[in-house]
Write a structure and sequence with these properties.
The complex is a heterotetramer. Chain A is mostly helical. Chain A has 4 helices and no strands. The chains are: A mainly alpha, B mainly alpha, C alpha/beta, D alpha+beta. Bound molecules: flavin-adenine dinucleotide, protoporphyrin IX containing FE, iron/sulfur cluster, FE3-S4 cluster and FE2/S2 (inorganic) cluster (FES). Residues 147-153, 169-170, 173, 212-215, 217, 219 of chain D line the site of iron/sulfur cluster.
């Protein structure tokens, strides 16, 4: 593919579309998350037992994982698009990209661990 | 020849559209920053009850409740403006983007007031 | 040769001066043939004045009603007050359809009829709806489309270069010298063929529809080179110039049915051209307006009348004439849906210009002797297609069609001829002009001189002319030319020196204005756009001929030996509308 | 009509003399109906001949005179001063390099235009007469053909400020104009070209372009349609 303006050699249509799809999904999941964790349980302080007590349903890990994944994808893809606006050199881009990728993978791992732990704690 | 603008042209008048974009961007960056922290913090669950609760005491303090109210605002702005962006992208929202912005901000504000009341009532 | 010189020395098959419709159309034709074509323009191509044309481009497509080439030919001849050369018109109408269809194939977004064909509307002096249009931005879309095609075919562009002298020797064109406006510095263009397509010269008037760039550089260059100009006294005044500004409100307004009214709210055209009313040719309507104004029936006794669009209704105004609506609103704070718009006649189109034959070759005398390798097309040329008065929408067609024809002949010429040698010291003339403006000790500034020229030209060389006024004008010009010699410019920088550019342009204005006045003084009759209150009748016996004018030893020399080409079937008649 | 006193602050830059742009204030008397261009002409002709700016048609059709006045991009020739009051602050367009005073280097702007193949591409044989195009088909592109390439939009777009690699709204609008022309066969090519992070995807629907456009073209809406077409085409 030969684009002869200062191109990035990367098409952006998929990233753009996924950013929007993830946004719509997040819109639902995030509000749901806030309602369950921040508003319900009025009068009760958030503590270990309260959190753990909510984790028993079978859909808990699925929903949480979906949330984690979309939020991370959407957020990091967002940061990536911001960085692309301000860096034009190839090497900087490469650096940022690998950094974001690493952060994403690490957090996904950490977050998944938390979810599994919570679920197994409650199930046990 | 002289090149003047480098990062953002602060002498350029900011129209509604540019405010929406700047705030959306800043909100998005704040959110991904928060999300990273959040994932770490919740991860402390896996270290057992004590660790988690000690962190939670900290997070249940009035100061953090106030920050939470702020976070809720940031989320709502980003979420609702995000919906505006989706409408612009897919449903000819460009033709009424200013009206849309006002509507979205109004809705976000209403939810913010409601949510803030709930959050703060935990403390009060 | 020094390196600096090499960088400023270009060798190109065909060099085209002017990036309007004429220049670009020619360049496209040459570039398509595989030869190298360069366009030199003092403004970015899309900034050329052709883009300002609003109303339409004439071609007898007969898409909305009956029409024929003969009708187009006859209308043009009659419109010209029989001064046009009929062989030129014949070629013109024959090629016009092709030109429009070609434009359409290049992508011009013409407005459409319900069945998807090019829409056409009526225009002054045309006996059928013949103006193909795109809303009221016809020139704009034609110009942009042509520019795009030129990009596609790798035409070389030298944007913001101002041509200062032609390199001519022994009746053979060899190239030209131009000033690089952006960076400063002179450039030599060595060419096999040169086309002059520099547009009109309306900037000599204060009230004009023309762009700042329309300073008649092409005609002045030719005059400088010792060649003649033709029919310079014929300048069209458009009846619907925005009051005070002179900015054009397209004739399309009247085509769509707008009225012109005086202080008594009368559609006064009924006393001047009862059959055609507002759609009579421009010279007729402009004179009617000026007469109303002179006789005290301007609005409130002042020097304007009204263009009334209100009865067309909001929808039609905004849909068909959006640009006109915006212009009135922005410049006069007049809402054309609710109020009538103040208008006055405005200097608009230059019928005269550089004499050329039907192959667009520049000629140097009444016998038609050709300057080899030098061509001209568009408003700066005088072929003569428009004679004493141009019909609206014929000029875009003129520029495009003869631009194409010029391209064809230039290509042929380049194929058959090599590069003629450059004259010795090619830079001298151009360098001299600049040095004088930079090094002069004079106290004169160019702006007041230009202002004085323009104001006086508007007063004396307008719709009505007479001997006394013109003699005074001549004296004014002489005085201003004298003052010009003492002009120095404030700005001594090389890059984008607007001061210098304007001073150079003023020299041209002063130069050809003299020719206009001399020609008008000599022509003791009234024909088309040239109306003399002291000789109000057309006089075919003596004056059915073209004016050629040279500058020799600082004096304008006139010659009337060039007759008009007239076909037997189109003999001169009285011109009535 | 009356004469009024106004204060005009102009960003001056004279190459070779100034290391960087500087402000200069002019106090001038002008008619209250004047446009920004009238004011510049007044200054240039009567006060300071060294002032440089571009203008030609002075009827808002050639696109020469786009500049920044009191923080907004306008065409100097069509903008009456009463829109801004008696204090004017005039600067060259942002995002481009300054050649001198209010004159900026637009070569990159036109270069970008070239990249999107801004001409009708027809693979079929040409008809004898015109192509048939219905008024509805024309309507799709009608407004986009109004563009006068004044660069006000691209200069106003924050996406183009930090990094001038962005194609910019004007070039993208031109791509739209051809992709959606019913006569054109070159859409695939063009969609591929603009499907780039520096192409259509750097538009973050900021709408400054639409605010700046003197022809009131709904640029962002057309870019949105272009984006959807790119998505459709590439996935
Ligand atoms: C407001 C207005 C509306 C009009 N409407 C219509 C209409 O509806 N229909 C119609 O048929 N006609 C119309 N006309 C007339 C028509 O637009 C012109 O006659 C035609 O466009 C002339 O085209 P051109 O190519 O000869 O010159 P232009 O388009 O004027 O181009 C001249 C070119 O020469 C260049 N140039 C000049 N001097 C120099 C120099 N020294 N060095 C380098 N370059 C130079 C300029 O930069 C420019 O590129 C209108 C005219 C005006 C003023
Ligand atoms: C709640 C629902 C959300 C919606 C509807 C939403 C919507 C959007 C949309 C449409 C964009 C694209 C903007 C553009 O391309 O111009 C975007 C960008 C972004 N979002 Fe979200 N978002 C949401 C939640 C989040 C969350 C939770 C985060 C953090 C993790 C986040 C971080 C970002 C970032 C960093 C950007 C990039 C900002 C930019 O390009 O200017 N968003 N969002
Ligand atoms: S889209 Fe509007 S602002 Fe942009 S170049 Fe075209 S006319 Fe100017
Ligand atoms: S301002 Fe720029 S980001 Fe898009 S909507 Fe306009 S091009
Ligand atoms: S001078 Fe032509 S657009 Fe302003």
């Amino acid at each position: 593919m030969n684009k002869d303006f200062k191109q990035t050699s990367r098409s952006g249509s998929l990233a753009w579309l996924l950013q929007r799809i993830s946004a719509v999904i997040l819109f639902i999941l995030l509000l749901l998350h806030f309602v369950t964790y921040h508003f319900l349980g009025k009068g009760q302080a958030v503590d270990y037992h309260w959190v753990v007590s909510k984790a028993g349903n079978w859909w808990f890990p699925l929903l949480q994982f979906a949330f984690l994944l979309t939020a991370l994808y959407h957020g990091l893809n967002g940061v990536w698009s911001v960085l692309e606006d301000y860096t034009s050199s190839r090497s900087w881009r490469l650096l940022w990209y690998s950094l974001l990728l690493t952060v994403g993978v690490v957090l996904l791992f950490v977050g998944t661990l938390t979810i599994i732990k919570l679920y197994t704690l409650q199930a046990a | 020849m002289y090149k003047r603008t480098r990062f953002y042209d602060f002498t350029y008048y900011n129209f509604i559209g540019s405010w929406a974009w700047i705030l959306h961007r800043l909100a998005g960056l704040a959110l991904i920053f928060y999300l990273c922290l959040h994932i770490w913090v919740i991860h402390t669950l896996t270290y057992g009850e004590e660790t988690f609760n000690s962190v939670m005491v900290f997070l249940n303090s009035p100061l953090f409740k106030l920050l939470e109210v702020g976070l809720w605002g940031v989320i709502l702005f980003h979420a609702f403006n995000g919906v505006r962006i989706v409408i612009v992208d897919f449903f000819k929202g460009s033709l009424a983007h200013k009206k849309l912005f006002v509507i979205m901000v109004a809705m976000a504000f209403a939810l913010w007031a409601l949510g803030s009341y709930l959050i703060l009532s935990h403390v009060l | 040769m020094k390196i600096e010189e090499a960088r400023n020395h270009h060798t190109i098959d065909a060099v085209i001066v002017g990036a309007g419709l004429a220049g670009l159309r020619a360049a496209l034709e040459v570039a398509k043939s595989g030869l190298s074509a360069a366009v030199i323009s003092k403004v970015y191509p899309t900034r050329s004045h052709s883009g300002g044309a609003q109303g339409g481009i004439a071609a007898a497509l007969a898409n909305v009603s009956e029409d024929s080439l003969e009708a187009h030919m006859f209308d043009t001849i009659k419109g010209s007050d029989y001064l046009a050369d009929q062989d030129i018109i014949e070629r013109f109408v024959n090629e016009a359809l092709k030109t429009v269809y070609e434009f359409e194939h290049m992508g011009v977004p013409f407005s459409r009829t319900a069945d998807g064909r090019i829409n056409q509307r009526p225009f002054g002096g045309h006996s059928a709806p013949r103006a193909c249009f795109a809303q009221d931005i016809t020139g704009h879309v034609l110009l942009h489309t042509l520019y795009e095609q030129c990009l596609r075919h790798n035409v070389l562009f030298f944007n913001e270069f101002q041509v200062l002298s032609l390199l001519l020797q022994d009746d053979v064109s060899r190239g030209l010298v131009a000033w690089d406006i952006r960076a400063g510095g002179l450039h030599i263009f060595h060419a096999r063929a040169v086309l002059l397509a520099t547009g009109g010269y309306g900037r000599a008037w204060k009230v004009t529809s023309n762009a700042h760039a329309n300073t008649g550089d092409g005609v002045a260059l030719v005059l400088d080179a010792g060649l003649p100009l033709e029919d310079m006294e014929f300048v069209q005044f458009h009846p619907t110039g925005l009051y005070k500004h002179g900015i054009l409100l397209s004739e399309a307004a009247r085509g769509e049915g707008a009225y012109i009214v005086n202080d008594k709210n009368e559609r006064f055209m009924k006393t001047y051209a009862a059959a055609k009313m507002e759609l009579a040719p421009r010279d007729v309507v402009s004179r009617a307006e000026q007469t109303e104004i002179n006789e005290g029936r301007g609005i409130g006794g002042r020097d304007y009348v009204y263009l009334d669009l209100r009865h067309l209704g909001q929808q039609k105004i905004l849909e068909r004439l959006p640009q006109i609506y915006d212009l009135a609103l922005n410049y006069l704070k007049v809402d054309a849906i609710k109020e009538p718009v103040p208008i006055q006649p405005t200097a608009h189109y230059s019928m005269g210009g550089i004499p050329a034959n039907v192959r667009t070759e520049v000629i140097k005398d009444g016998k038609g002797t050709v300057i080899r390798g030098l061509y001209t097309a568009g408003e700066t040329s005088c072929l003569s297609l428009h004679g004493a008065n141009r019909l609206g929408t014929n000029s875009l067609q003129d520029a495009a069609t003869f631009g194409r024809i010029a391209g064809i002949h230039m290509t042929e010429f380049c194929r058959e001829n090599g590069f003629a040698e450059l004259p010795a010291k090619p830079l001298d003339v151009a360098q001299g002009k600049i040095d004088r403006l930079w090094s002069g000790q004079g106290k004169e500034r160019h702006a007041p001189i230009r202002e004085m020229l323009q104001v006086n030209m508007t007063q004396t060389m307008g719709v009505f002319r007479n001997q006394d006024e013109m003699l005074k004008m001549l004296a004014v010009i002489k005085e201003l030319q004298e003052r010009y010699r003492r002009v120095t410019v404030d700005d001594r920088g090389a890059a984008f020196n607007l001061d210098l550019i304007e001073a150079l342009e003023l020299e041209n204005l002063l130069s050809f204005s003299e020719v206009i006045v001399e020609g008008a003084l000599a022509r003791k009759e009234s024909r088309g756009a040239h109306f003399r209150s002291d000789f109000p009748k057309r006089n075919d016996g003596e004056w059915l001929r073209h004016t050629l004018a040279w500058r020799r030893n600082g004096k304008i020399v006139l010659d009337f030996s060039k007759g008009v080409v007239i076909y037997p079937q189109y003999q001169p008649q009285e011109r009535k509308y | 009509m009356a004469m009024i006193d106004i204060r005009v602050k102009i960003l001056r830059y004279q190459p070779g003399q100034d290391a960087k742009p500087r402000w200069q204030v002019f106090a001038v008397k002008v008619e209250d109906e004047s446009t920004i261009l009238d004011v510049l002409n007044e200054i240039h002709w009567q006060h300071d001949g060294t002032l440089a700016y571009r203008r030609s048609c002075r009827s808002s059709i050639c696109g020469s005179c786009a500049m920044k006045v009191n923080g907004r991009n306008v065409l100097a020739c069509e903008t009456p001063i009463h829109r801004f009051g008696t204090k004017l602050k005039i600067e060259p367009l942002s995002g481009f390099e300054i050649i001198k005073d209010l004159v900026v280097d637009l070569d990159p702007f036109f270069e970008k235009l070239k990249r999107i193949k801004p001409y009708l591409i027809v693979d079929r044989p040409m008809p004898d007469k015109e192509f048939v195009q219905s008024p509805q088909q024309l309507e799709q592109i009608g407004e986009s053909t109004l563009c006068i390439l004044c660069a006000a939009c691209s200069a106003a777009c924050p996406s183009s400020w930090p990094n001038s690699d962005y194609l910019g709204p004007a070039a993208l609008l031109k791509a739209y104009r051809f992709v959606f022309d019913s006569r054109d066969d070159g859409a695939d090519d063009r969609l591929e070209i603009v499907n780039d992070k520096n192409g259509v995807w750097r538009c973050h629907t900021i709408f400054n372009c639409m605010e700046a456009c003197p022809k009131k073209i709904k640029i962002t809406e057309y870019l949105s349609r272009l984006k959807l077409k790119v998505v459709e085409n590439s996935l």
